[in-house]
Amino acid sequence: MNPSPRIGVFYSHGPHFLRVLKQVRQKQPGATLIAFVPHTFPAQYLEGIVSEVHRTAGTRPAAALKTLRQLRAARLDEFIVMFDSPRLQLLAALSGAPTRACHTVDGRQRPINFQVIRPLLRWATRRIRGQFTYWRIRRIVRSQSLD
Q1: C-alpha angle 140/141/142, rounded to 5°?
Q2: Which of 24, 78, 86, 144 has the fewest CB atoms lying closer than 10 Å?
Q3: CA distances (Å), 100 to each of 7, 41, 46, 72, in order?
Q4: Are strands 109-111 and 99-103 parallel, antiparallel or unpaired?
Q5: Is residue 110 helix, strand or coil?
Q6: Alpha carbon of residue 76 to chain centroid
Q7: pTM across the whole model
Q8: Predicted confidence (pLDDT) per residue in 62-115, tens digit
Q9: Local structure of 9: helix, strand or coil
């Protein structure tokens, strides 16, 4: 007999968190569903939907490390985030879960394949392009006479 899969859903401020939990519960009724929510989230909304509630520490660096330890200690089989941001992709990649997905507002679930190089190159390209634009504008402003 296979143990029930452990699925973690990470809270992000948005209109569809409870909908995500209900859809995951509906797809896998026997799973151990774990909600990772902030301390301020009202737990009564989660009753009857999730198996466990884990309170996250926050977003500051030390708190983020504590949250990451919580995720890894939960030994998740699947980790679901609600938005496809680089920060959440990194969190999902570091969660230790073999299956990671983004559950979109329209109810679709897409796998997360986090890559380190592509986002870094995109950031560096934008940074360099922005710096050249700044220098060009600065040169134009300084060359204008005040008369």
Answers
A1: 95
A2: 144
A3: 10, 23, 22, 13
A4: antiparallel
A5: strand
A6: 15
A7: 0.75
A8: 888 899 999 999 999 999 999 888 888 888 988 999 999 999 888 888 998 876
A9: strand
